[in-house]
Amino acid sequence: MLAEKNTSKALWIRTILIFGAFFIFVQEGLPQCNFSENCRKAYSEIFALRFGEARSLIAAERQSDPHNLVPVYLDNYMDFLRLFIGEEQALFEKLKPGRGMRIRQFEQGLNDSPYYAFLLGEIYLQWAVVRLKFGEYTGAALDMRRAQALFSSNKTRYPSFLVNRMGLGVLQVLVSLVPDNYKWMTGVIGLEGSLEQGMNEIRLVAEYDGGDRITGMYRPQATFFMAFLGVNLQMERKGAIRLLERFRELEPGDQTWSSPLMIYVRAVVMMKNGMNDQALAALQERKSPHTGFPFLYLDYLEGTARLNKLDTGAREYFRCYIRDFRGMNYLRAAYQRLAWISLLEGDTAGYRELMTMASVGGALLVEEDRQAKNDAGSGLIPSPLLLRARLLFDGGYYDLTMKELLNNPLKSSVKTKRDLVEYTYRLGRICQETGKDTRALEYFRLTVERGRSEPCYFASNAAYQAGLLYEKAGAYARADSAYRLCLSIKPSEYRMSIHQKARVALERIRPFQPKT
What we know:
Blueprint: H1 2-29, H2 37-47, H3 51-64, H4 70-86, H5 89-95, H6 97-107, H7 114-133, H8 137-157, H9 162-176, H10 183-188, H11 195-206, H12 213-217, H13 219-233, H14 237-250, H15 260-272, H16 276-283, H17 297-308, H18 314-324, H19 331-344, H20 348-358, H21 367-378, H22 384-394, H23 398-406, H24 410-413, H25 417-433, H26 437-451, H27 458-472, H28 476-488, H29 495-509
Helix pairs in contact: 2-3, 2-4, 3-4, 4-7, 6-7, 7-8, 7-9, 8-9, 9-11, 11-13, 13-14, 13-15, 14-15, 15-16, 16-17, 17-18, 18-19, 19-20, 19-21, 20-21, 22-23, 22-25, 23-25, 25-26, 25-27, 26-27, 27-28, 27-29, 28-29
């Protein structure tokens, strides 16, 4: 009897061991997420747009650990950047099947770490952004919903996992910026977004100074998001500079500082702060020849920075952009800027010829291209004086701008009502940037009074800029009125971007408004 019990016990233990070994074997054979050294290096190479080096590291990782899912995510990250930067429709169609294949690979893996839901959510989010760019709005909204579900559940399960918060924050910002005519779609599928909350989530990673290597690895990406969004959507132009300085302090020897993506955001931040010469200095840090994926928009950006100081050598940068870029955006705008150079040189015939190209070549997805087409269709030739003033102002050369406006005969340069509206608008903007707020508000009032029924953007943006001045002074009721006035004016130029900023501003000052 005792022998039978011992035999039965031994059989039971052996059965447990067999099943345990089988379970361990199955677990080890399933795909999992491991940010190995190869993967970390590959991620950094991808952010630097050195895709060849990244592919070699990914191949080495697959050979050493065939069950690691991180290379699947890294492949998707490369495809995302190729599509977002290159904007080629044919490449989009070619790479699109990879989306479903990678999602299926993840779904066969082990959901046993915070990286699983984060990386899968990133894949969905990257494809949402790309699909938005290529006009697949319904598919993009569904991908955003899937990403939101993954990031949100991951935050509940792993609240201290910071990089997941970055993904959730980017998604919240993206949803908050959906144009009004597509808000119904996000409401139907249950998407919600807050710009302020999203920025706070991203900030957790951008300002991280702890010892976790993976969170530190994502700091450049988070800094990129924070700086770009801050300088474009919030009263954070100076804050974006401080953020970049903080990144430089945390990463004193990091080569990421001179990567094309970081050069881009540094240049944009400097240009938005009227620091055109510093922006040019950053753009000239580009390695020549650049051996990574071509970021040709940097040519357009450098041409713009050079044109802002009335350097006609900008022509070569716009020509290179038009010649080499195979994507959709800023081609019409590049032709318009070439036309401006001809006008500055006194070549009216050359201006008209180049504006003809702006009327036919390229997409109409970004406001600069739509404006180029509209200007070409109007047949009007800009006042050279006001054009010089506009460019110098955009470069932050405020003293030179004021001299242009005040030291030239007004009657010879201001010939139409639009010219007059632009003239007072330019004076208001110069006063605003040089601390003469009272005079700026008076010029903005004149601009709105004269231009609110005109198709040009000056009146709408003057109301928005007045709102910023009132907000800075803590006069929130007046700021609210100014922002609402901005939204009530319906220009045919730059309406979407101006109104988007006004809506963001109204949301920003809402906590300071009296309760009703």
